Amino acid sequence: MNGIETILSRKSVREFSDRDISNEDIKTILTAGMSGPAALNMRSFEFIITQKPSILEKISEANGPYSGALKKAKLGILVCGDIDKGYLGKDGYWVIDCAIAAQNLILAANALGIGSVWLGTYPEKAKYSALQKLFSLKSNVIPFATLAFGYPLDSTREIRDLYEVEKVHIDKW
Question: What is the CB neighbour count within 10 angstroms for residue 1?
């Protein structure tokens, strides 16, 4: 699958098969997550990964009622931002660095035939605080995105055309 097909066929997957994700594929996904641009290359992102069902369930509970897909996932990745490492600190670009990393994780998984879903965390203080507590994180490490991965039960892929001409403004609004 080429890069454009990977992007255009990406979809949120919440139902996963029992098939395990190989360590090689996990490393490929993480490498992609670490390969995006970051403000001044500060690379303020950090990743907590787990394949343990008991931990996936705890993450799901901490992240709220819409995170049930984690209970069925074969891999969970919590993308965190270290605000002390981010450009301009607390008022800086760590959120953007983490968003780029999370998107790359999801796209890499799709290229490998692995489904995923982004389960919102930041900026909801109750969610990221619960995850900070769950993993005993320091106050400067903020959970940003909770991602669930697994091979989809429905593995059909389609290129979706989500282009909306009315959202494109040329030379003026």
Answer: 13
Nearest of 35, 24, 30, 9 to residue 113 by alpha carbon: 9
Residue pair 132/142 in contact (Cβ under 8 Å)? The answer is: yes
Nearest residue to 109 (alpha-carbon basis) of 23, 6, 8, 37: 6
Residue type, 29: I
CA distance 41 to 8: 27
75-82 and 141-150 as β-strands: parallel, antiparallel, unpaired? Answer: antiparallel
Domains identified in the chain and CATH numbers: 3-154 (3.40.109.10)
Kindly report whether the global pTM for this prediction surpasses the value 0.90: yes
- Whether 124 and 25 have beta carbons less than 8 Å apart is answered as no
Q: What is the DSSP string of 11-66?
A: -B---B-SPPPPHHHHHHHHHHHTSS--GGG---EEEEEE--HHHHHHHHHHH-TT
Output the pLDDT for position 9.
95
Structure-token pair, residue 81:
């931002």
Model pLDDT for residues 88-99, shown as the tens digit of each residue: 877 789 999 999
Q: What distance in Å separates the CA atoms of residue 121 and residue 93, rounded to the nearest whole number?
A: 17
CA dist., res. 149 & res. 110, Å (int): 10
Cβ 145 vs Cβ 78: under 8 Å: yes
- Secondary structure class of 82 (helix, strand, coil): strand
